[in-house]
Amino acid sequence: MPEKRVAVASKVGLHARPAALVAKAAAAQPVAVQIAKAGGDPVAAGSVLNLMTLAAGYGDEVIISAEGDGAEQAVEAVAQLVATDLDA
């Protein structure tokens, strides 16, 4: 299962606008994408509510993973968003 570790780049963490953008991108992928805080349980990345319940703040490391055909591209697409300051 492909996975990637990235630091949350948005100053407000994965809340509000950044969470909505990440959830939209994750939901658009051909496979289910999961995200977890380091040491925590994974949640579906396509849900804004799930992303907000992670309480992932600025600089926190998260692990993005997916399984199936297209999983590597899906993980990379979501990871790039998380690693971008979406508040800018």
Brief description of this entry?
Pfam families: PTS-HPr. This protein has helices at residues 16-27, 48-53, 71-82, and strands spanning 3-7, 33-37, 43-44, 61-66.
Describe this entry's structure for a reader.
The protein has 88 residues and is an alpha+beta fold. The chain is 34% helix and 20% strand. The protein has three helices and four strands. It has a four-stranded antiparallel beta sheet. A hairpin with a 5-residue loop joins strand 2 and strand 3. The longest helix is centred in the N-terminal third of the chain and has 12 residues. It is globular, with a radius of gyration of 11 Å. 33% of the residues are buried. The mean pLDDT is 96.
List keywords for this structure.
single chain; about 90 residues; alpha+beta; about 35% helix; cytoplasm; Phosphocarrier protein HPr
Strand order of the largest sheet: 1-4-2-3
Helix fraction bin: 25-40%
Strand and helix order: EHEEHEH
Unreliable segments of 5+ consecutive residues: none
Largest sheet: 4 strands, antiparallel
* Assembly classification: single chain
How would you classify the helix and strand content by structural class?
alpha+beta
How many β-strands, per DSSP? 4
Pfam family, one: PTS-HPr
Keywords: Cytoplasm, Phosphotransferase system
Main location: cytoplasm
Domain HPr: 1-88
